Amino acid sequence: MSADTPINPLANKHQAWSALFSEPMSELVQRYTASVGFDKRLARADIQGSLAHAQMLAAQGVIGERDLADIERGMAQIRAEIETGHFVWKLELEDVHLNIEARLTELVGDAGKRLHTGRSRNDQVATDIRLWLRGEIDRIAALLTAMQRALVELAAQHTETVMPGFTHLQVAQPVSFAHHLLAYVEMFARDAERLADVRRRVNRLPLGAAALAGTSYPLDRRKVAELLGFEGLCENSLDAVSDRDFAIEFAAFASLVMVHVSRLAEEIVLWMNQNFGFIDLADRYCTGSSIMPQKRNPDVAELARGKSGRVVGHLMALITLMKGQPLTYNKDNQEDKEPLFDTVDTVADTLRIMAEMAAGIVVKPEAMERAARRGYATATDLADYLAKKGVPFRDAHEVVAHAVKVAMQRGLDLAELPLPELQAFHPQVGADVHEALTLRGSMAARAVVGGTAPAQVQLQIERHRARLG
Ligand code: ARG
């Protein structure tokens, strides 16, 4: 190498740490420590962060305007190379950050080597993950809205469709299918609130923390935050480079969404079972069996249920990763990416497919209603009927338990017992009793806010529509 050959310190990574190293990294260590195989996913965010940093460095006079122009030109080319698949990722350059910086220096020379002034990969990577995650949060928020809309619109067609409501998976009281669906809308609405809250804490800028202690260059952190759309700064440099609680929070949010999805998925599987027969799914969401010609299996719902396990697993991975880490940055944190990426992918795909599938559910109202007629779903209504006529509720409860026992022995529903027989259970039973015992009478009576009465459910549907826009 002649004296005027420009040195690219990143041409060979073991030289990146300086002349201190006397031997190259072993091939195994290189493979073990490299993250470029997965963190190249952060490339767009990495370039965006670098451009904001460079712009600020130039405005502060730390680098020249020419340097900034060179960096911008080089980054534009790198972005194009990545997007067209022409960028050559090198394992020996360890991660996305060093790969991009090395290529920049190759393209624009010294300006590329000035980019890292006042910055460390520690605040760089924390910034990249936050930027990337913020974008994904916005995408997932939109999917959550779509999911809720699908359920609300399906519910709007079924405020009068009666099904058995269950406790302990035993028939309890009649509810409308709409009311049942809106329970999931509530769950997903809370998930959306949680996500918005997580976003506020993700959306803070670590850059300026440098390796850990801050930097001696006159950086304008607020300007960088503004350029990148961050709502605030990480206010302690040690914390900025080391904590990943924002990723853990996101994984906790994601775990809850998946738990909610898995509950809905489980119900879809049950409802499609021949013994329920409450719904059918479009063929495109089902698979057949290679041996049993009659089978149509709800694989999508089962997989959605199954995938909740892996997202909860990622939460465990991330939270365990953080535990016991001394301040500040430790290489452990490189392990945050794969769980986080897979969490985002799994939640996004699952919400998309479940919303689509739910929107296409074929409801079988007769089967739901038939099921609601079995299991004495209106027994509470008979007790309430007596209580409203002055019988203490506990006594009414006993009387009705006895009536149910008799009806069971005769293989009849309460509503099928003739009036004189019902009157034999209690003198307060009048001619109006049958009205209280019908499924629709039972539903209509539950007109408290949040109850299953069609008028109440209609109000909820309108509230959700207004909220979801
Ligand atoms: N690839 C690294 C990570 O994901 C980037 C930060 C490396 N910093 C360091 N001091 N080795 O965490």
Summed up:
The chain has 469 residues and is mainly alpha-helical.
What labels describe this entry?
elongated; binds arginine; about 475 residues; mainly alpha; single chain; Fumarase C, Chain B, domain 1; 3 domains; Fumarase C, Chain A, domain 2; Ribonucleotide Reductase Protein R1, domain 1
Describe this structure in words.
The chain is mainly alpha-helical and 469 residues long. It has three domains: 33-117, Fumarase C, Chain B, domain 1, CATH 1.10.275; 122-155 and 165-170 and 177-369, Fumarase C, Chain A, domain 2 (Up-down Bundle); 373-468, Fumarase/aspartase (C-terminal domain) (Ribonucleotide Reductase Protein R1, domain 1), CATH 1.10.40.30. It is 62% helix and 4% strand. It has helices at 13-16, 27-33, 36-39, 43-59, 65-83, 96-108, 110-114, 121-156, 177-202, 221-228, 237-242, 245-272, 299-322, 337-359, 365-373, 379-388, 393-410, 419-425, 433-437, 439-445, 454-468; strands at residues 162-167, 170-176, 204-205, 232-233, 279-280, 362-363. The strands form three sheets. It has a two-stranded antiparallel sheet. Helix 4 packs antiparallel against helix 5 and helix 9 runs antiparallel to helix 12. The radius of gyration is 31 Å and the shape is elongated. The N and C termini lie far apart (65 Å). Bound molecules: arginine (ARG). Arginine (ARG) is lined by residues 35, 39, 95, 121-122, 125, 329, 331, 333-334.
